[in-house]
Amino acid sequence: MRSNMPVTNDEYVLPDGEVIISRTDIKGRVTYVNESFVQSSGFSREEVMGKAHNIVRHPDMPPVAFEDLWNTIKQGEPWSALVKNRRKDGGFYWVRANVTPMVENGQISGFMSVRTKPGRAEVVAAEELYRKEIDGFVEYESKNTLPRNPAIFVGSSTPRRWKTAEAFPE
């Protein structure tokens, strides 16, 4: 797993209505970013084109989040979750990431991610959950059930799915 360092506590808050868009090939290499991606990440287009999208991965994100992402989108399903990204300068920004496979001639040809500004309460819940996951304190009733504590994953296909109880009642 990539560990992007150094990091700072400087948060960049996405402007209201901002939409970050990026596309990758099937191996996760960047093929397109919009101006909002450039502004939010601090990387130029030239710095990210052809590079692994995880160039913006923040070390506070638990590995299971990206395992879940890849397991889901490789099956042709969309994935949505809160993600803490690292900026080029070491700062960070939170997004609600919506990732979907792009299909051409019946085959997955790449992935598109559309990211928006999450609510502050969602960020607080995500920070708590991710900290517990990294520290090994997230409890699962079994491998095939959702944890009972509120969380922030929706639409994933793996047995360790998490979802926000308040926003998406069972």
Structural overview:
The chain is 22% helix and 24% strand. It contains four helices and five strands. It has a five-stranded antiparallel β-sheet. It is globular, with a radius of gyration of 16 Å.
Task: Summarize this structure briefly.
This protein has helices spanning 35-41, 45-48, 63-73, 120-135, and strands at 19-24, 30-33, 79-86, 92-104, 107-116. By secondary structure, it is an alpha+beta fold. A hairpin with a 5-residue loop joins β1 and β2 (30-33).
Helix content: 10-25%
What is the chain-wise order of helices and strands?
A: EEHHHEEEH
Number of strands: 5
How would the global form be characterised? globular
**Unreliable residue runs:** 141-151, 155-170
Radius of gyration (Å): 16 Å
How would you characterize the largest beta sheet?
Answer: 5 strands, antiparallel
* Order of the strands making up the biggest sheet: 2-1-5-4-3
Structural class: alpha+beta
- Overall average residue pLDDT: 83
Assembly annotation: single chain
- Number of H- or I-type helical stretches: 4
Strand content: 15-25%
Distance between the termini: 32 Å
Characteristic key phrases:
single chain; 170 residues; alpha+beta; 5-stranded antiparallel β-sheet; 4 helices; 5 strands; 22% helix; globular; disordered C terminus
Element layout with pairings:
Blueprint: E1 19-24, E2 30-33, H1 35-41, H2 45-48, H3 63-73, E3 79-86, E4 92-104, E5 107-116, H4 120-135
Antiparallel strand pairs: 1-2, 1-5, 3-4, 4-5
